[in-house]
Design the sequence.
DNA sequence: CTCAAATAGTTGCACATGCAAGTATATTAC
DNA sequence: GTAATATACTTGCATGTGCAACTATTTGAG
């Protein structure tokens, strides 16, 4: 079954690395990495979640999230609070400074995405999202 | 322009990390990382290319490729040869052992991809590839 | 209730990543 | 032909990644 010449892994990694590099360069002025931005952007959407939940949302291991959150706390963008009902768990709060930063960065992320979507119809974008989401589900 | 709820970066990184993790677990029995496999698979397709060309093909910086090739050479899967016409350049050759390894691994990679494509029609797969390739081009 | 298993989190390791700065060679400008 | 620029590659650094092994707490089986 030679469906097309290129493997999924190669296609995905090339595209992911390109997007990540471009995002990384844009984020230098904010002294953030794409991964750090990804986590505070998620906390901006859903505050007061546990590290475990944040790991699941962003498809990373808890251990990875621990280390990135360490850096976000050091930068004053996130605080760690205890869960009153589960003393093992840590709940994360985004600070006002964190929210401001996300607000500043979001339009610049959109610029990059708009450029990536050059020549795409709205239908193409929706289809692409649907297919990628389905891929992701199958890989769970 | 709020096209859909999820950002491209989040979708892409989640899916990429999932696929990479599953591939990584499969490759443990071969003592290879997904990135190492990716490079020798590319060399299996096109032998005797320079590190620069390999970097471009896989969308990585030359510096990253240098380091992964170091490991492949140590494992005896790749050799470095000099370019007779350009003494700066290094040309890479995959060894017989390297080719055998790629041959063994390829069907297992296809298994993972087939699982990822569960519920996809052939048309969906082709469309997905076309859209991702277009994304990648726009990001160049 | 008690003890085993599961869960949330952390730390140490090896590897991937890319930028900055370096060397060596090739190309281009004049 | 020589000097400036570009190119191929390498090394050092900081960060992200996930597995293994660890602690602390909660859940569940009996």
Sequence:
């Amino acid at each position: 079954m030679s469906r097309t010449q290129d493997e999924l892994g190669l296609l995905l990694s090339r595209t992911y690395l390109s997007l990540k590099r471009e995002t990384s360069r844009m984020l230098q002025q904010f002294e953030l990495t794409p991964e750090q931005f990804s986590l505070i952007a998620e906390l901006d959407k859903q505050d007061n979640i546990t590290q475990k939940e944040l790991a699941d949302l962003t498809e990373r291991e808890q251990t990875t999230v621990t280390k990135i959150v360490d850096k976000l706390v050091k930068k004053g963008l996130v605080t760690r609070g205890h869960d009153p009902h589960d003393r093992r768990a840590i709940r994360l709060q985004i600070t006002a400074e964190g929210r401001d930063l996300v607000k500043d960065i979001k339009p610049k992320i959109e610029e990059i995405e708009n450029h990536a979507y050059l020549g795409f119809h709205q239908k193409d974008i929706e289809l692409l999202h649907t297919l990628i989401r389905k891929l992701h589900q199958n890989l769970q």
User: Anything to note?
Assistant: Residues 17, 20-21, 24, 28, 50-52, 62-63, 65-67, 83, 86-90 of chain B lie near DNA strand D (CB under 10 Å from a C1'). Residues 20 and 99 of chain B are 22 Å apart (CA to CA). The first strand of chain B starts at residue 49 and ends at 50. Chain B has a mean pLDDT of 93.
